[in-house]
Amino acid sequence: MSRHQARKRFGQNFLIDNTIINQIASLFDNTVSVEHTLIEIGPGRGALTEALLRNDHPLTAVELDKDLIPILQTKFSHHRQFELHQGDALRVDFFELSKGLPLRLVGNLPYNVATPLIFKLLDNIDNIIDMHFMLQWEVVARLCAQPGDPHFGQLSLIVQNLCATHALFNVPPTAFSPAPKVESGFIALSPRAEPLIKKELHSAFNKIVKTSFMHRRKTLRNNLKGVLNEEQIQSVGIDPGARAETLNIESYAALAGLVS
Length: 260
Ligand code: SAM
Hints:
Blueprint: E1 14-15, H1 18-26, E2 37-41, H2 47-52, E3 59-63, H3 68-75, E4 82-86, H4 94-97, E5 103-108, H5 111-122, E6 128-136, H6 137-144, H7 154-162, E7 163-171, E8 176-177, E9 184-191, H8 202-212, H9 220-223, H10 230-235, H11 249-259
Parallel strand pairs: 2-3, 2-5, 3-4, 5-6
Antiparallel strand pairs: 1-8, 6-9, 7-9
This protein binds S-adenosylmethionine.
């Protein structure tokens, strides 16, 4: 196993801190059931996988690096509950893997895959129970940010519309080998029973949010030029001279209502 070289292009920073590994696995103790499918994204050399399997519940893992597949197969050959798929989590059909059961997802995600993967999963949010991910700390901050926070932006609004976001703990670079250059954070994303914004407004909401944050230093009046004029912005009680990061999600819903 030690012959496998960590590959930068696959975002391979393997967890080596047993306290952190246990902290993550304990979130699943007594909460995994046969009524849902637990999927680990990027099992790597199996550090977290091993801890997740301690409850002897089914676990499916999706790993991109072909060289890790025989290592994982050997390591977990005695776990009949373990299913391994070689492939790209950005392309895989999670709902085929889910066997028709609601999904729980967990992973120490490769940092370049995290945001597109979360967006892919949001498209199928109705089938997901929860998601627990290790991410770059800054992405955790953006996912959890509230209006007025410098990290508040498109990602905060689009994800928080569909999920409650909880930053659980920070993880230092020393918890990984090789150590990444940045701090990490572990986050729980819990899909809401109903999105904060009505489904029929989602496409307008996504467009307005994206356009409002086009140039962070500009005012709404300038960013939304060509989409909404000053009078329209004022008509829903919003100051056209405000900056995008100061508006709450309800204000974006009101602006979306004007273009839908
Ligand atoms: N879970 C392991 C751990 O904590 O030690 C490994 C985490 S490492 C940060 C990310 C893992 O995701 C690596 O094993 C990498 O090969 C895998 N990976 C990278 N891109 C992937 C993708 N698109 N789909 C599935 N797995 C991917």
